[in-house]
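Hi,

Apologies if this is the wrong queue. I'm a grad student, and the batch job for Ig-like domain-containing protein from Anopheles melas produced an output file that my downstream script rejects. I'm not sure whether the problem is my script or the file. Here is the sequence I used:
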Amino acid sequence: MADHDFAPSFTQKPQLRQEDDGNRLIFECQLVAKPKPTIEWYRSEELLSENARTKFKIQSFGENKYFVVLELDDVIDTDAGLYKVKAKNRMGEVSASINLNFSRKQIDGVAPTFIKKPSIKQENDGKRLIFECEIKADPKPQIRWSHNSKVIDNTPRHKFKVQNDGTLYRATLEVDNVTFEDSGKYKVTAKNELGESSATISLNFDSEYSVPWRQKRQSLLVRKSQYRRMASSLLLQIDLSHDNRTTARI
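Support response: The file is valid. Your script probably expects a header line. Output copied below for reference.
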């Protein structure tokens, strides 16, 4: 395992199993992280707290490896909904979701999962940046990119591409005529009928390239050392925020 710190990343998608004739549900997944991440569980965006029916566990089973569990006892109909687990440390965060539904039939296929985390490369002497990642999904996912929480539209400066080989999809975002205003957090989200998965990466410029405000819209040379890659945030929905959503039938 690498000796440097790194953001959490799922090594096993969240899974759902039942015990005690369905009266107890267990949500479980595995991840790697350094340092040890903090874990939060949500149901329908509401932060869950431990109580007599709800129990959380995080167990280390190797160097920087963790087994994460949510146990839900005395299951009732109102427990249905979208469950999300979020793991976070100072290097980044990853989240995963699973949709618990007591009546809908489970759909065959694969919820979106990031096979290759987002990365950045440059072209045209740094005037063009290309964000790219690889996703496994079936059926075909919808891809959405955002910058600092604002959805990116297809424009002359921003171009989207999605290429596939079977259930493997390569998604890219091209940004032309790069400026300082293009720095910040980029998020890519893949969604299909079975779930949703999201990953983030941050683009930062060295201070030595700072320019007066009135010059910010000029094209800038972006050297390789000028951007810092952050670990992808995986939304899994049972997410791989990893936000992979899978419907489970009980």
